[in-house]
């Protein structure tokens, strides 16, 4: 078998810049397609799509009105990076589950339960959240 006959192991990458609220549905569809291409099962695909949706909406609402979304698909894995250009997250934002009486604040808690890995980098120039999910070997 030559290298031309082997599957390409480089991740496929797509970036959508300037996503606003009306564009979130299109991002969800792209993320779902990417997760399926990576080999995630239907439950994992749905959970990952929900998590990405939550992060994109938060980025738009709290990070300046738009978000840049990069989707990477590799063999058995999908990663999505969401970048906003707001003022960064406040120190009191936490991935812990708030009390039932608290309005809001459940997004990061939910996201961390729906993804294999979540990283958050925040500064005064914006926030970058990267979410990853891996296919379960069959």
Beta-strand content: 25-35%
What's the average pLDDT?
Answer: 87
SSE order, one letter for each helix or strand: EHHEEHEE
Q: What is the second-level CATH architecture? A: 2-Layer Sandwich
How many H/I helices? 3
Distance linking N and C termini: 25 Å
Helix percent band: 25-40%
How many structural units, i.e. domains?
Answer: 1
CATH top-level class = Alpha Beta
Gyration radius, rounded: 16 Å
Strand order of the largest sheet: 1-2-3-5-4
Strand segment tally = 5
What is the SS-derived class?
alpha+beta
Low-pLDDT residue intervals, each spanning 5 or more residues: none
Q: What's the CATH H-level homologous superfamily?
A: Histidine kinase-like ATPase, C-terminal domain
- What is the molecular shape? globular
> How is the CATH topology named?
Heat Shock Protein 90
Largest sheet: 5 strands, antiparallel
Keywords: Kinase, Serine/threonine-protein kinase, Transferase
Organism: Micromonospora avicenniae
Protein name: Histidine kinase-like ATPase domain-containing protein
Pfam families: HATPase_c_2 (PF13581)
Describe this entry's structure for a reader.
GO terms for molecular function: protein serine/threonine kinase activity. The protein is α+β, with helices and mostly antiparallel strands and 138 residues long. The protein has a single domain, classed as Heat Shock Protein 90, CATH 3.30.565.10. Helix content is 32%, strand content 28%. It has 3 helices and 5 strands. It has helices spanning 24-38, 42-62, 107-114, and strands spanning 12-19, 67-74, 77-83, 117-123, 126-134. Strands 1-2-3-5-4 form a 5-stranded antiparallel beta sheet, covered by helices on one side. Helix 1 packs antiparallel against helix 2 and helix 2 packs antiparallel against helix 3. The model has no long low-confidence stretch (mean pLDDT 87).
């Amino acid at each position: 078998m030559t290298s031309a006959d082997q599957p390409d192991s480089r991740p496929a990458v797509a970036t959508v810049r300037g996503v606003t609220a009306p564009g979130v549905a299109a991002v969800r569809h792209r993320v779902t397609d990417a997760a399926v291409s990576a080999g995630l099962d239907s439950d994992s695909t749905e959970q990952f799509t929900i998590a990405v949706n939550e992060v994109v909406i938060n980025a738009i609402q709290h990070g300046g009105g738009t978000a840049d979304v990069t989707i990477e698909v590799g063999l058995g894995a999908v990663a999505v990076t969401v970048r906003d250009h707001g003022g960064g997250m406040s120190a009191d934002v936490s991935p812990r589950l708030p009390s039932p009486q608290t309005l809001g604040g459940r997004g990061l808690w939910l996201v961390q339960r729906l993804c294999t890995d979540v990283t958050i980098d925040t500064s005064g120039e914006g926030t970058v959240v990267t979410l990853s999910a891996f296919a379960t070997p069959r």
